[in-house]
Amino acid sequence: MKRESVEMIVRAIDPYNAPYIMRDPEIMAVFEMASMSARRGKISLAAHYLREAKTMVSEFGKERLTPATVEIGMGVTINLWSDRHAATIIRVTKQTVTVRRDKATLDPNFK
Question: What is the mean pLDDT of each run of 10 residues along the chain (111 residues)?
């Protein structure tokens, strides 16, 4: 399967995240397995991998933070191995998402 064909499929499913999906090695590997299976004549296996790849593409925006899926003011979590910190998105460009760590204090009335 040529890269242009893969990109056409990806853009049809998720046009906003297509540039990020095309750089995802896990998704591209599944498309490659579909292509390799088709070249070997294993059509049902190729169809399975293609369905799997399409599912991964459709779920990409739900699982990954990209400039196409966020807005300024949204809350996010900064993961540092086992530590988690609350943060807010303060700037979004085509290639980056900038977050600011929030200062969290315990509410004394919380039970």
Answer: 92 93 95 96 96 96 83 92 93 90 89 81
The answer to whether the beta carbons of residues 71 and 92 sit under 8 Å apart is yes
State the DSSP string of the chain: --HHHHHHHHHHH-TTTHHHHTT-HHHHHHHHHHHHHHHTT-HHHHHHHHHHHHHHHHHHHHHS--TTT--TT-EEEEEETTEEEEEEEEEE-SS-EEEEEPP----TT--
pTM value > 0.85: no
Interatomic CA distance for residues 49 and 31, integer angstroms: 7
